[in-house]
Amino acid sequence: MAVASLLAGLSILLIGDSHLAQPNYLIGSLHDALTRQGAKVHSIGVCGVQPADWTVRVNGECGSAERVGNRPATMTSGAQAHTVPVAQLIDAEHPNLVLVVMGDTMAAYQQVDFPMNWAWQQVSTLTGAIGKTGTQCAWVGPAWGQEGGKFGKTYARAEVMSQFLAANVAPCTFIDSLKMSRRGQWPTIDGQHFTAAGYRAWGDAIAHAVVTLPSVARR
């Protein structure tokens, strides 16, 4: 079966943090890759937020972006940049799939210890809100990026974050970005955020993973 026919008519709500908050980030590459394959996509990225922030309205720290279908992304800054409760979005749009892209913001790269209890509360709050709606969901974990940079990213903590998400995002399906590239393969601007080329590679890889999700393949 052709890839395009697998996603044709699929409605996807894509939410996340700063990786979706600039036009040449995943709100460009991933959104386009899913749309080309026939999906109807609504993407919202809010810089600096955590998973539980998507269950209430929370102002972003450094802007946001929103994109619907083939329209260009709309950028927002200041107090106007905020999350929208995921239950509200689902009730308004009835998507077939909620796709969450979050991990780097929780990884606490510059802290000695990974804040596991706090991270569990963050993740379970969001997955619980999605789960109550009965909507299928998938959670995209962090990619390798490059060590160092502004955020002090390390490969070891990226692995810890990825393994934590794999074990804790149910009922969502986990999508492991670490399997999509080699360490340091995709170029970044600060260790954590990719160049346009890096985001294209990551977006294409995520879109391929979405096609193979059991909930999508059964359609």
From TrEMBL:
Q: Domain of life here?
A: Bacteria
Q: Which GO terms describe its molecular function?
A: hydrolase activity, acting on ester bonds
Note the Gene3D superfamilies from the entry. Answer: SGNH hydrolase
The entry's protein name is: Cell division protein FtsQ
Supply the source organism for this entry. Chitinasiproducens palmae
